[in-house]
Write a structure and sequence with these properties.
alpha/beta, Rossmann fold, 6-stranded parallel sheet
Length: 451
């Protein structure tokens, strides 16, 4: 009879062997901006993929070869289906068939900037109901150090099975950048952490099939890696927005400063100002660490200061807009018609998670303005957690006639599909938060105020 030690060695060795010959079913839980590209990468590598999502609409669309993410078009979905190795389901009983179960679920903050781990907890409990010996469970969602040990492992071991002996656990943070054509799931290295060498070997063997792997010593270290990456970005975004305010007071264009500074081949990395933070990472992830740090009696003053700086950005944009309307048009925001250009949180995508544009629209409406939006990638506003009252708003066409009907146009997202010269030419006043109008003719620039 095998001892516990021998059992885990045998499990790991057999798992690695099967990964090397692509004889594993990779279960991906959550088929959104992270999970769907991951499924595509594993199919391309030759694995069987079990895609699971509780949203039946997504399941039905994928089965029909249709997409719901703009930068992953229908033909890529059809190609995934054509492999014959993709199963998409909302039936949790099918999780039993996954040799690896990768959790790609949301980890938002609540109203008090505290981690909402409910999706991770619920998904883990779902896995536990169908957990079998030999499976590998990997959390990919960004979270605070200790989540995998304190929540995922604890829930799974309530089944009576033991991690590192009967099944394996690892953590590998997602690093997706939706809409970035320069990087894909298969070209971005994967950090992988596990608490034992044998579990780490299993996880590394899975991910090595699709990309370069960077192993680290344990799960909490891997969790800290992801937070560090996003905290670095938060702090630098806060810094450059503060510099923008300082330089504006001196009559200096911060974008020109950055473009010149980034010609230095070392010691500088370009970050750009904007109207606020958006997306699934930067507005949320750093505060997972601040929350966990307090539990250890530590403070994170630098991170929290950066958070306070960026939280004020939408309000500052509205103040700039109000001042510009007063000085250029002799009008107040109240009673004015304002068009917000760009609803997505970043350019050239249809992703509006945590988008600052929603906050801008809300604040303008609070000031009694009539507000519409135009976004070439978002036809209609879906239901959102923070602003459900905007659900059903439709993108207005960006025509010469439409633009002339607005007192002011606010550029919140710099989509490439927008003709900014025509926009400025046909507008009375343009507030540009993204330097989108940098290349318009000089004779039009008097209509533009950068904010």
């Amino acid at each position: 009879m095998l001892t516990k030690h021998h059992t885990s060695e045998a499990m790991s060795a057999e798992y690695v062997r099967r990964a090397n010959v692509r004889d594993l079913t990779i279960g991906i839980m959550g088929l959104g901006y992270v999970g769907l590209p991951l499924a595509e990468a594993f199919l391309h590598a030759g694995f069987r993929v079990l895609g699971f999502d509780t949203d039946q609409r997504k399941v039905d669309l994928l089965k029909a070869g249709k997409t719901y993410i703009q930068h992953i078009p229908d033909d890529r979905i059809a190609a995934m289906n054509s492999t014959g190795r993709l199963e998409v389901t909302s039936n949790e009983a099918r999780l039993h068939a996954g040799d690896a179960l990768l959790m790609c679920v949301p980890t938002p903050l609540n109203a008090h900037r505290e981690p909402d781990i409910s999706y991770v907890r619920d998904t883990t409990e779902m896995i536990a109901r169908h957990l079998r010996p030999g499976q590998l469970v990997i959390l990919e969602s960004t979270t605070y150090p200790g989540t995998s040990d304190e929540i995922v492992k604890v829930i799974l071991e309530k089944t009576g099975l033991r991690s590192g002996v009967d099944f394996a656990i690892a953590y590998s943070p997602e690093r997706e950048d939706p809409g970035n054509i320069d990087f894909s799931t298969s070209s971005i290295p994967k950090v992988v952490g596990a608490n034992t060498a044998l579990e780490r070997d299993m996880a590394v063997a899975v991910y090595e099939a699709i990309t370069k792997v960077v192993p680290v010593s344990d799960m909490k270290t891997a969790e800290a890696v992801k937070l560090t990456e996003n905290i670095f970005r938060l702090i630098n975004i806060a810094l450059v927005n503060e510099l923008k305010a300082v330089y504006q007071g001196m009559g200096i264009d911060v974008w020109e400063v950055i473009d010149a500074a980034k010609t230095k081949p070392f010691g500088f990395m370009a970050f750009y100002p904007g109207p606020g933070l958006g997306g699934h990472c930067i507005p949320i992830d750093p505060f997972y660490l601040t929350w966990k740090a307090r539990a250890h009696g530590e403070t994170t003053r630098f991170i929290e200061l950066a958070g306070d700086v960026v939280t004020q950005l939408p309000k500052q944009v509205i103040e700039h807009l109000s001042e510009a309307m007063s000085s250029h048009l002799q009008k107040s925001v109240a009673g004015s018609r304002i068009l917000v250009v760009g609803l997505a949180y970043k350019k050239n995508v249809d992703d509006m998670r945590e988008s600052p544009s929603l906050h801008l629209i809300h604040m303008l409406r609070e000031r009694k303005a009539t507000v519409d939006f135009h976004d070439p990638h978002i036809a209609k506003v879906p239901v959102t957690r923070d602003h459900p009252e905007f659900a059903g708003m439709e993108s207005v066409p960006l025509t010469e006639k439409a633009l002339k009907d607005y007192d002011c146009v606010l550029i919140s997202t710099d989509h490439d599909a927008v003709d900014y010269e025509a926009l400025v030419r046909n507008s009375r006043l343009v507030i540009d938060t993204r330097n989108a109008t940098a290349r318009i003719p000089d004779n039009l620039k008097a209509k533009v105020v950068k904010a």
